[in-house]
Amino acid sequence: MITRVLLPGLVLLTLLSFSPARPATPFTPPATLTLRINGLPVATDTLGSRLFLGADHTLRLNVIRADDPDGEGLTILIDRFPLAPGTYAFQEILSGHNRDASYRYQQVAAYSKSCPDNPGVVKITAVDTTRRVLTGTYHCQVCESGRGARRFTMTGAFRFPYEEE
Questions:
Q1: What does the pLDDT read at residue 72?
Q2: Where is the signal peptide (predicted)?
């Protein structure tokens, strides 16, 4: 009697153990993107923000504020980006590389080239070409042109998918 009960259960268990395995889906953590302006956190719109990698090896990070989803936000441009971890400083604009930052929010327009001292840097800490994700941090100063000439320090971190242009 015990054999009659156990035998069908063992057959079923054996059949289940030989069923084809499902392929493992690689885990992709959610996109993260932070922005601080003069030390104060600003909510970002991760749906509107973009990270582009051009065919000419141009990297463009566009951080959109959550309170201005149709605005331009902060745009950082790095020319000659080799898709590799490293530190890319804005001072290299003078050496022929195009590395720049600009910021627009409502009536405020500011540019890194407007600052007499331009300590901008993007640090890429990880490149995942399989999932097309870049991880890193950024720090730059942008200055309003014209009267007032306010200086804004922009900092943040990202783990964000990139799109190819």
A1: 93
A2: 1-23
